[in-house]
Amino acid sequence: MPSTTPQTSSEILNALIAGGVQDPFPLYEEIRELGTGVHWSELLNGWFLTRANDTRAMLSDTANYSNDMLEVTGTGAHNPDNPRQRRFAELQSNFLFFVDPPRHPVIRSVFRSAFTPKAMAAWRPAVELVTDRLLARFDAGDEVDFMEELASVVPVEVIATVLGVPEEDRMRFRDWSEALTRANNPAVQGPERDRAISTSMELVDYLADIAEQRKARPQDDLISTVVNTPTKDGSPLGSTEALAQLVVLLAAGNETTSNLMGNGTTILLDRPEVKRKLIEKPSLMNSAVEEMLRYDPPFHLDFRRAINDNEIAGTVISAGTPVYSFLAAANLDPRAFDNTLDFDIERQNNKHLAFSHGIHFCVGAPLARLEGEVFFTKLLRKFPDISRGAEEPVRRTLNILSRGWEKRPVRL
Predict the structure, then answer these.
(1) Of the candidates 378, 410, 387, 408, the residue with the CA atom closest to the CA atom of residue 135
(2) What does the pLDDT look like over 4-60, one tens digit per residue?
(3) Closest Cα to residue 4, out of 28, 30, 25?
(4) CA-to-CA distance for 39 and 9, rounded, in angstroms?
């Protein structure tokens, strides 16, 4: 619900950007209903969109908006005298979500067979096995930090399995993935970012070695697909482009699914009647996962850079200006969704923006959905009485992009 004390859009944006707000949703609700829903931020020197139709239109407008945001957000900053940082910057510039047409559809075309329904059916047994193994470590009544013990473990195991990484190396992926997320967080700068880049490059070197092996001896895994599949132009990706996509699959895949699991579990803990309904009727799980994605998306923010002068909701957007979209606000926009504040696991036509929109719609969305459906089904089957833990949960506050839970104690 909106906060009781009216605030200006600048005050709300400053609170959200500066961090420290445990529950951002009242602020999302309030700022979305102010004026036209388009607001200027002095802190980030850019415009913020809060409504679904404006966000959808901007994200699909490749003629006027670019994804080349590295320098604008500060995440492209690096020490040119440091060869590993130079290499990391080159890799970043090839991440699929920073690449514009005409190169973007060429890179994306290597995934045309990777996340199909047929591929998901083939990967389902692996996702089920990883989930069963993890849940078997715990007994009913155990008190655990859900984020530490469950939500951050399953995605790493799954993506490592799908990529074809040897089992003995998978535990290292967790630290590497966290470092990569920090290195791409605009709020992380200075020595902390230097350390994050250094750790991230361990992952890059590791994946580069496996990619070379898969070029010589392809296997039935995602690394082989990325390095050997011809693009729609007829030739495989270059080594740097291919490696960049593997890094993105690991980091973005982990973050997305981990947040989905943490956010979804929190929603179910707050709504025991919904939890009971899913236990009684697990066939509703796919629809429930979609509603989880709408209600509290894995990523709360998306961004672009204006290429040309244009307008959004009557606001003039000058060329070169960053435009940020609060996906979490847009997903609760009453102009786009009926009874938007109700968590409805049977919601129809749930066209949320959790995976972005347009050409940059998340390529790995089918895998995240599969992981969510399998995980929640098995979690509620084994631990139907899962409840809040003794300690209070803590939401991330310093990363406005990824506002999942830092700590989520539960009793299984």
Answers:
(1) 378
(2) 455 899 999 999 988 789 999 999 999 999 999 999 999 889 999 999 999 999 999
(3) 30
(4) 7
Question: Three-state DSSP class for 302?
Answer: strand
Nearest to 6 by CA among 49, 35, 46: 35
Distance CA 148, CA 132 (A): 17
Please give the Cα distance from 19 to 5 (Å, whole number): 19
Mutual angle of helices 170-183 and 190-216, in 10-degree steps = 130
How many other C-beta atoms can be found within 10 angstroms of the C-beta atom of residue 14? 14
2 found inside a domain: no
**Sequence letter at residue 155:** P
**Of the candidates 288, 252, 245, 262, the residue with the CA atom closest to the CA atom of residue 152:** 262
CB 72 within 8 A of CB 98: no
Task: Decide the pairing of beta strands 143-145 and 315-317.
Answer: unpaired
- Give the residue ranges of the chain where pLDDT is below 70: 1-6, 71-77, 186-187
- Global confidence as pTM: 0.93
* 255 CB burial (10 A radius; 0-12, 13-18, 19+): buried
The structure tokens 């290429």 sit at 307
Range of the domain at 264: 9-411
Would the CA dihedral through 170, 172, 175, 176 be positive or negative? negative
- If we measure between CA atoms, which residue out of 302, 347, 352 comes closest to residue 331? 352
CA-to-CA distance for 375 and 382, rounded, in angstroms?
11
Is residue 3 one of the residues assigned to a domain?
no
How far apart CA 130 and CA 61 sit, in angstroms, is: 39
Contact criterion met (CB below 8 Å) for 279 and 380? yes
**What DSSP character marks residue 358?**
G
Domain count, the chain: 1
Contact 105, 359 (CB under 8 A): yes
What pLDDT is attached to residue 73? 65
CATH code for the domain in which residue 192 is found: 1.10.630.10
Q: What is the DSSP string of 225-270?
A: HHHHS--TTSSPPPHHHHHHHHHHHHHHHHHHHHHHHHHHHHHHHH
Give domain status of residue 4, yes or no: no
Classify residue 1: in a domain, yes or no. Answer: no
